[in-house]
Design a protein that fits this description.
The protein has about 140 residues and is an alpha+beta fold. The chain has one domain: Nuclear Transport Factor 2, Chain: A (Roll). The chain contains three helices and six strands. The protein has a six-stranded mixed beta sheet, covered by helices on one side. The longest helix has 16 residues. The N and C termini lie far apart (about 40 Å).
């Protein structure tokens, strides 16, 4: 697994570490703690915008196993775009891989000393869901 040394923003590094931990143990609490209380999380599929904890739980529940590598980060003041690849095992044992982009918007939260200078106020993720759908059986 890559070390993600190309990521310089400490908030982004915290997010990447929390995603990895969540993928391994299924507990979203460390990841959810990085978000503001009124944060939104959106993926462009049938789920749309969701509350953060529900978003992460719905994400994890679709896989038996998942491992993400963050291959590129485009960092700006208050925002980062992360390109990633995920290797997953779907329920039933089918292994596949898919790629996408996640955009994080950060906001200052002076009331939270644990926020490292900001919290995630908004997450949007974009990926092709085709890799997650079983191909129809061929007709003879």
């Amino acid at each position: 697994m890559e070390e993600d040394n190309h990521i310089t923003d400490p908030r982004t590094r915290s997010f990447v570490a929390a995603v990895r931990s969540f993928e391994q143990d299924g507990d979203p609490s460390g990841l959810v703690a990085l978000f503001s209380d009124d944060a939104t999380a959106t993926r462009l599929d049938a789920h749309g915008e969701q509350e953060v904890a529900a978003f992460w739980q719905a994400y994890r529940d679709q896989f038996d196993r998942v491992s993400t590598t963050f291959r590129n980060a485009v960092e700006a003041v208050g925002q980062v775009a992360l390109e990633w690849d995920s290797d997953v095992v779907l329920p039933g044992g089918r292994a596949t891989a898919y790629s996408g982009v996640t955009i994080l918007d950060f906001a200052d939260d002076p009331g939270r000393s644990d926020s490292g200078g900001g919290v995630i106020a908004r997450l949007r993720t974009y990926y092709d869901t085709a890799a997650l759908v079983a191909a129809p059986a061929a007709r003879a």
